[in-house]
Fold:
Amino acid sequence: MFPGEELYYEVSFMGIRLGSIKVLTEGKQNLNGLEIWKAKYYMDSYRGIPFVDLHTIYQSWIDPSVSFSRKFEGSTKKSDGTWDYQKIFFNQPDGDIHGA
Structure:
């Protein structure tokens, strides 16, 4: 992972382009006294794909080992135009997971 790194993936199935995933590495940050890497993910389906209308933003605060997450936030656009929001905290040493 490198600060400012941007990865872009195009998702397809059997030659049909379904959407895209963009990953942005925001760099090192401090989360409750712990050094972490923060990344943001955008997942979007393309217009005109039947039965699919996906628009999601995920954020993850990742341990420097890049083997587990410390915190996760996700927002998904619902069909009525509102956004569903979820926040999860991970306490790896104790094996605890809790949402807010």
DSSP finds no helices and seven strands in the chain. The CA atoms of residues 19 and 45 lie 4 Å apart. The chain has a mean pLDDT of 90. Residues 6-99 form one domain.
